[in-house]
Structures are given as C-alpha cells and as structure tokens.
Amino acid sequence: MISANRLRSIAFWSHDLNEREIEQARRGIVEKAYPKGAFICHRGDNFEAWTGIVSGLVRFCMTSASGKTATLAGLRTGSWFGEGTVLKNELRQYDLVAVRDSQLALMNRATFMWLFENSVGFNRFLVRQLNERLGQFIALLEYDRTLDATTRVARSIAWLFNPVLYPVAETQIEVSQEEIGLLSGVSRQVANSSLKALEAKGLVRLEHNGLTVLNLDRLRNFGE
DNA sequence: GCATTAACAGCCG
DNA sequence: CGGCTGTTAATGC
To answer: Is the distance between the Cβ of A201 and the closest atom of strand C smaller than 7 Å?
Structure first.
C-alpha cells in the first residue's frame, strides 16, 4: 500500500481519478526494486500485476527460439504497462528486463479490474494509452527491414518522449549510449555514431550519461 | 559493405 | 576508481 501523495507523484493517470478511486488504487499498489539486469518477468510467466516505473529504465523484448532478443520498446520513468495482459488474464507474451536499477509500482489485478469496472477517468486513460501503443507497434513493422541505424536510434529516442505515454514537458533523459543501443537494437558503437549524427543535425544534445531532445518532431519523423 | 565484438585510452563523477 | 565515451582493429553475415 502507498500513500495518496505517493500515488499522485508516481502515476499521472491518478490525476483523473476521484477520491474514492484514488483510495482504491493506492491500497492495491506496492513498490519493489529491481537491480540492473534483473528480469521483471519472462515470457510465459503468470505475472499479473499492472506495472508502473517509478524510476529507472525497462526493456520490453522478445527472445526467439535461437536465443536472439528483439527489443520492442524502452519504458522509462512514468510509464505504466501490462494492461493488455491483465485485461485478458493471460500469461506474459514477452520479457521485461531492468536496463538499470529500477523502482517499480505493482498494482494487483483485483484493483486494476475494480478501476476498470468503476472509473471513467481510468478508462479514458487506458483507451488513450492503448491507442498510442498500437501506433507504436505498427511503426515497428517497418523497423527492421527498411530503417538504417540512425533512423532506428532517432525513433527509439522519440518514443521515450512520447507526449501521450509520458505527459511531462521534459526534454532531458539520463541514459547511456549503451542503453540507447539496447533499446534501438544496435551496438554501442553504432549508437555512438548515430547519436553524433543526430547531434550534428541539431536534433539532440549529447551529455555525459544522458541527452536532451532539441527537436522531437524531426526525431520522430527522421528518415522520411 | 555494413554491423558487430573486442580492446583501449581518455574523461567524468 | 568505476562507469561512460570515442575510436580503431579484427571478424562475421
């Protein structure tokens, strides 16, 4: 269980909830720390919590039978995920790995379902989020075949600043070039040269263990 | 050719 | 010192 204030600060969707709904939500959430490299869940797990990232960075990926992993998305502080699995009450279809030390908020399924049945504000949030994710995965379809490394890096960064998924007017993120590589599906060296190419075009500013987005629109549409 | 791994020096916190 | 960055060399698809 967490306090109402804590809920407000870690879950932007709670701003659309009424008093009674906030009370239910905060009682159904616990926080848990995951060290760098830890699996939050594996494909096939019955991990039934709806999950929010309080701090850290999580990679959402799939591992093929041959052992190769494909990153589907990077999830940063402020994102909530797993609603598809919780709604359908099924096993996880993917792996979740903490890219670095991360603090997560776990909402139990009963609480999630109560909000789903009772809260208009919560449902509005869910529809918006599902719709945005759908766009994200449709965009992934062209990814592997048609996009060069720099374009993939550009779009991976753009997703980390998606205004619907992360409704905070923030332009800076603490992330190493190695982590960008993991999220983009390229090596650290390629991530490095791609990032420098994006910096030369004035789309981002590189910092030590971090970067600032200077032009989100051009990043999102990079390569078109 | 392009991307990846390996390796290393330099830099930053 | 430990982790991150910028580069180069060797290797693989």
So the answer is: no
Per-residue b or e along A126-153, where b marks 16 or more CB atoms closer than 10 Å to that residue's CB = beebeeebeebeeeeeebeeebebbbbb
Which CATH number is associated with domain A142-220? Answer: 1.10.10.10
pLDDT over 70 (residue A130): yes
Distance in Å from B12's C1' to A206's CA comes to: 14
pLDDT grade, residue A223 (50/70/90)? confident
According to CATH, the topology of domain A4-119 is: Jelly Rolls (2.60.120)
| pLDDT mean over A101-117 | 96
Q: Greater confidence, A182 or A65?
A: A182
pTM of structure:
0.88
Contacts with A49 (C-beta within 8 Å, 6 or more apart), sequence order: A82, A86, A106, A107, A108, A109
A186 touches strand B (CB under 7 A): yes
Q: What is the mean pLDDT of residues A18-46?
A: 93
Distance A156 CA to B3 C1' (A): 18
Statement: the CB of A189 is under 7 Å from strand B:
yes
> Domain residue spans in chain A?
4-119, 142-220
